[in-house]
Amino acid sequence: MSTRSLSLDDRLYDYLLAHCPPEHPELQGLRAATAELSAWKMQIAPEQGHFMRLLIELTGAKRALEVGTFTGYSALATALSLPDDGQIICCDVSEEFTSVGQPFWERAGVAHKIDLRLAPALETLDALLAEGNAGAFDFMFIDADKENYGAYYERGLDLLRAGGLIAVDNVLWGGSVANPDKQDEETQAIRALNDRLAADARVSLSMVPIGDGLTLARKR
Length: 220
Prior knowledge:
8 helices; seven-stranded mixed beta sheet; 7 strands; alpha/beta; single chain
């Protein structure tokens, strides 16, 4: 029995990956394609992809939102676990990065589930609310510009149904959130959201030390 989360060295991390379900071939291919990019570190870890797929299944999600798609790995993982008539709306501003993932979405047979909207995410989320979609979504993944995390979270709460789940990425930010010497805007924005969520009576909360830290907030 351990009283705190384990630190994973390379051997233990390899063991963990070996005992996760096999990664879908198109997820593997997209991970390899992303690794060729200079911005490859924005890719979520494979074990986080497995975890998110399980969350989709556990919540019975049918309608999902994603803020920050990058090359589309998390969108693909989500779409693979949604029912055939499910949908994920992906918010991003980069045609260059999102175009990397689209052939993999097609080959995986889930492109029809993915609605990519290239525009500032707040514009897309506000438009969804204006169209009467409050309470219409089951799951939301936030992994975009950190300065707007608080605004994305608030829109997400409005768009999610009661019992819906928001997953917020990078909440440990490489350890910077606990380092008082780190006072850049991104770190301060993540700290502010972490503080807000910890005191938010509208949600049930767990911060999970997977990847770069993932907060799960279930709307009450």
